[in-house]
Write a structure and sequence with these properties.
The structure is a homodimer of 216-residue chains. Chain A is elongated, with a radius of gyration of 21 Å. By secondary structure, chain A is an all-alpha fold. Chain A contains nine helices and no strands. Helix content of chain A is 62%, strand content 0%. In chain A, α1 crosses α2 and α2 packs across α3. At the A-B interface, α8 and α9 of A face α8 and α9 of B. The first copy, chain A, binds a DNA duplex (18 and 18 nucleotides) through α3.
DNA sequence: GTCTATACCGCGATAGAC
DNA sequence: GTCTATCGCGGTATAGAC
């Protein structure tokens, strides 16, 4: 509120709000939000506790900022990929496929804040508001699955609601293990997750170009 | 330790250790372990804080008991379904299929404690020990996937390690929404999760008996 | 922008009466 | 088996000097 925008990022000792936020999110993900004290964060940054409160007015404000980043990114990505607007002729199934892949990319691009979002349980007003925004996004995804099912291009022996839960449960489970910088790029990950979701892990006759068996 | 086994479960007022544990696990899952105080638990049970410490020597002992239940159930289930012993002639792929389904059933049968287990981050010695036991189980599952891949009955364009992560990530994501008592029975859930994992959500030619389209 | 010092509160756990 | 009362600690947040 009364901050002078901290436009001068040069020279001065100390941290800006953004750096404090990034570090806080990492700690929240390592130990959990409730188990991370402002003293932990201050120690990690090498400053005193009260220095933190120069940048934010409360610990919960850090949480709110992080959740907002994740929700904004997810919502706009899902809107772009799932809505009819951009490619009016495409089938719902094609849009579903694109949405799954795009969700993976967003999750990876905003891994820390999305991880935090997926662990929120609704313990405070801030958390409840985040859960509500998330519910809206989930409902939009479920609607897309229902449209694809109505087209007849999805298997009909599984309820669309179940498919939606399982597919995006798979996507969300990535936060438990995927770390960028490894051998698997975000784009490859998105493609392979989508491939597994749509085609399963069993061999499909006539799908494989019989690649040379190489040991890693 | 000094408890007199509380064999008399009849008549007496108050709670036994098992009841306190079940209630504690539910609260831990609703709000998170760290965010749940012993005062919260006492209020929920309608007793004073110190009454809790008559049954357990610490809050963490409740966590340890719950995690032990989940890990024991998961380990024995995975051992039974994944090992060669019981059905020596079966392929690794068949055993993988059975293991996925059995994992779902165990997860549902022990939903509260498994949920708690999947949220543990390693903040204490108790939590770290649980994570280590879980790692052993996960490695056994990954080995089974590698065996199935080596048989040639799994698609080869995805790394076995990725398949293992994604499939059991899907299974684990069930704790976020599945609640027993609804229209979907645990056995049906197990079957449908397995079907989706192996065959994907796209229509497979010649698979569908074209069921009558019924609105729910 | 960071510091020290501190107010105030709720935490896990204990003591001892009933 | 539960109670009241309390201890000691560490939590978030604030005040005011530098």
């Amino acid at each position: 509120m009364t901050s002078q925008a901290t436009g001068s990022r040069r020279g001065r000792p100390g941290y800006d709000r953004e750096t404090v936020l990034r570090r806080a999110v990492d700690l929240f993900n390592e130990r959990g939000y409730d188990a991370t004290s402002t003293a932990d964060l201050a120690r990690d940054l090498g400053v005193s506790k009260s220095a933190i409160f120069h940048h934010v007015s409360s610990k919960e404000e850090l949480l709110a900022s992080a959740l907002d980043e994740a929700l904004t990114a997810l919502a706009s990505a899902v809107d772009a990929a799932a809505d009819d607007v951009r490619s009016p002729g495409s089938s719902a199934t094609d849009r579903l496929r694109a949405t799954v892949a795009e969700s993976v990319r967003i999750l990876v691009a905003h891994l820390p804040t999305v991880t935090l979002l997926l662990r929120v349980r609704g313990n405070s007003a801030v958390e409840q508001a985040a859960l509500e925004r998330r519910r809206v996004i989930d409902e939009k995804l479920a609607r897309l699955v229902r449209e694809a099912a109505a087209e007849g291009t999805l298997r009909t022996d599984l309820a669309p609601e179940l498919i939606s839960r399982l597919v995006f449960g798979t996507v969300n489970s990535l936060v438990e293990w995927y770390r960028p910088g490894g051998t698997l790029s975000p784009d490859d990950l998105a493609e392979q997750v989508t491939a597994l979701a749509f085609d399963g892990l069993a061999v499909r006759p006539g799908t494989l170009p019989a690649p040379p068996t190489v040991e890693p």
